[in-house]
Amino acid sequence: MERIVSLLLLALVVTLAACDRAAPDTSKAAQAPTSGTTGGSQSGDFGPPQGEPVKAVLTSPPAVPPATGRTAPARVIVELEVIEKEMPISEGVRYMFWTFGGTVPGSFIRVRQGDTVEFHLKNAPDSKMPHNIDLHGVTGPGGGAASSFTAPGHVSQFTFKALNAGLYVYHCATAPVGMHVANGMYGLILIEPPQGLPKVDREYYVMQGDFYTVGKYREKGLQAFNMENAIDEKPTYVLFNGSEGALTGERALTAKTGESVRLYVGNGGPNLVSSFHVIGEIFDKVWYEGGTHFQENVQTTLIPAGGAAMMEFHVEVPGSYVLVDHSIFRAFNKGALAILKADGPDVKAIYSGKEVDETYLSDRASANLAAVATAASAANAGALTVDEQVKAGQALFAGTCSTCHQGNGQGLPSVFPPLAKSDYIAKDPLRIADVALRGLTGKVNVNGQDYNSMMPPMSQLTDDAIANIATYVLNSWDNPGGRIMKEQVAQRRKEAAPTTVATH
Amino acid sequence: MRLCLLACLLPFAAWAADDGAGYVRVPGGNFTTVLAYEDARGPLRIAPFAMMRRPVTNAEFLAFVKAHQAWRRDSVAPVFADAGYLTHWQGPVQLMPGAQPAQPVTRVSWFAAAAYCEARHARLPRWEEWEYVAAADALRRDARADPAWRERILAWYARPSSSALPPAGAGAPNSYGLRDLHGVVWEWTEDYSALLVSADNRNQGDPDRSRFCGAGALSVADPEQYAVLMRVALLSSLGGSDTTMNLGFRCVKEIS
Fold it and tell me: How far apart are CA A168 and CA A134, in angstroms?
């Protein structure tokens, strides 16, 4: 028994916490903050809390709580419940998430520097696991982890003073830490500087995480956690806000032209570093690493695992802006993609849209377009076969259509509709020609799912090319087969012409 | 002690009449625990013992509280069981519909579990005994090096706990003939409290070395150990009066 009592605790209640921050630099303790710096934690204590305790407003992503609006330190009560629950991670794919507040990422917490935060961590009675919380915004060993280790059906309480302003990650630090984090146990706490943050029109909360399942990407059903792949750092999914499609389609972030937008973006990891980028925007300001200073005019900002950043931009031009991890295979093959939809009138002086589209003939005939040439000469000879059309269509598809609809015709859920086994195409194969000629804007239902985005007209393609692409699509991926002839396309183009003009 | 000796002389079949679960004889052996003991490097020597074939059921625990009034949920001393104790039962001595007789009993405190075993002239298993038998799969006594063994354990963590528990003993037996060591409920161990060092103990010696970062990274260096560590973490989070929806127990008897 004595042996047991003197167990070396290596294996137990292991927390990651203490390594998250360096010990206070005592050599500078006596120095007054130099001008241009905030003075850090030494200048963050504004005295005891004043007034009645305040209950913190917690929000589920992508919502952000309102500014505290306080000018004096308060006692802020935070009540956060750990819930283990099954939720979709992709369409038709479920995962057993462990959450702070029932969402991934967990509830957003907003306090003011100098506040005394009374933290209550509840662990739901039907939880299987004990959990705790390490807030990177806490000054103290473990960031609260040791003080908040909570069995199922229990609640723990600890209190800290928020000495440093900034945007901080919080996460579970119970062994095995990596597994708790990989299952979604992270979120953000914003500690506002005393003067608050500049006012913006919209604020959003986005957090990236990598996920590891036993089944392959988009393999249906309940997927279990894959420890091997987590250790090897080979994620099945890389996601914003815990599921594919969390921020696309109906759930896209929204803004209007002329508005300023601030994003609070965290990276829970557990493994990957994010190259965070918004396609079509430039960040006017990035409070890199979630700290006090900002960089201006930034295209892509790095967000480390267990780190965060704030960024602001002003929306000038309407349209869809795509949030991605610019380690770009993660965006298009693992799910790290979200949409911010901006509404408002066109501003042609800033962005014209397409102005010129003419044929450009390179003097270097591309080898892989040989099939196109074969089809063209066969067509001229009046001996074009379906097979030749399919081959030519395949080569053309690869350059033009596959960018969005993917090489396998699967599209991207909620963003780009599938062409494979498409009920939309089966209903009327000539739609392929119509959409290629006219583009498609607005709501469309394909295979039971609504899509609401914009495909520009591909009218630069010749009738020949469109006929071949359409024939390729019809004869691929379980579509009904058949062929489209260039004469049919020409006819549609003629009919299409007036409408296209009229809408512009 | 005399009781134990007496019991050990009886054939195991006789125990089965006593306890619905029945006991399985577990031969002793050398065993390398995943825990690092300060004063015991190398394998531990596990003495032979007998362990209940499956976790204790609601029906068995009901019989116990009927015979021992002090352990009814309406009369138990709060120091021995928290407010959740047996609350899924319909009444203090009534199971249905909240609890099925054949399901493993859960929401029992360590004190109640220990009292149950004591009333059966048994005791709760020690951690090393539990870990020793739980290392087995259907064919091998120590299957821990097999990724499939670990995957099966981890798969339980991925299953929602909102669904009803299966009857105790429905799982396949391991090579000892023991069932449901994994995949149904957590189980109390006699020395669970030794798996947690109290806040006071942490402040002695070199707490940072033993508790944070480096130590944590070392202890999980072998991914094989993850699944077992999670059970240790759960037990270490508990106090003796705590109950949870997923925590039950089984008893062991010593064999001399």
Answer: 10
- Chain A residues in contact with B215 by the CB 8 A cut-off are 9-10, 14
B145 in contact with chain A, both atoms CB, cutoff 8 A: no
3-state class percentages of chain B: helix first, strand second, coil last, to nearest 5: 35, 10, 55
Decide if A152 and B225 are in contact by the 8 Å CB cutoff. Answer: no
Angle at A501 between CA A495 and CA A504, to 5 degrees: 145
Give CA–CA dist A370/A379, Å, rounded. Answer: 14
Share the mean pLDDT of chain B.
80
ipTM of the shown complex: 0.73
Q: How far is CA A454 from the centre of its chain?
A: 20
Report the pLDDT value the prediction gives residue A24, as an integer from 0 to 100: 43
Tell whether the model's pLDDT for residue B111 goes beyond 80: yes
- Residue of A15, A83, A97, A128 to mutate, interface with B, max B Cβ within 10 Å: A128
Q: How far apart are CA A119 and CA B139, in angstroms?
A: 48
B-interface mutation test, from A6, A12, A131, A147, most B Cβ less than 10 A away: A12
Using alpha carbons only, how large is chain A's radius of gyration in Å? 27
Nearest chain A residue (CA) to B231:
A129
What is the per-residue pLDDT for B215? 35
CB A381 within 8 A of CB A456: no
For the stretch A182-225, pLDDT in tens is: 999 999 999 999 999 999 999 999 999 999 999 999 999 999 99
Asked if A177 lies within 8 A of B216 by C-beta distance, the reply is: yes
Q: Report residue A269 CA to chain centroid gap.
A: 13
Complete DSSP assignment for B240-252: TT---TTEE---E
- Across the interface, of A10, A18, A179, the residue whose CB is closest to B36 is A10
Maximum mean pLDDT: which of A19-23, B169-173, B236-240:
B169-173
Give yes or no for a contact between A61 and A207, defined as CB atoms under 8 angstroms apart.
yes
Chain-chain contact of A7 with B38 (C-beta, under 8 angstroms): yes
Segment B124-139, tens digit of pLDDT: 999 999 999 999 999 9
Does pLDDT of A10 surpass 70? Answer: no
Burial of A32 (0-12, 13-18, 19+ CB in 10 A): exposed
Chain A contact for B155, CB < 8 A? yes
- Give the span between the Cα atoms of B150 and B153, in whole angstroms: 5
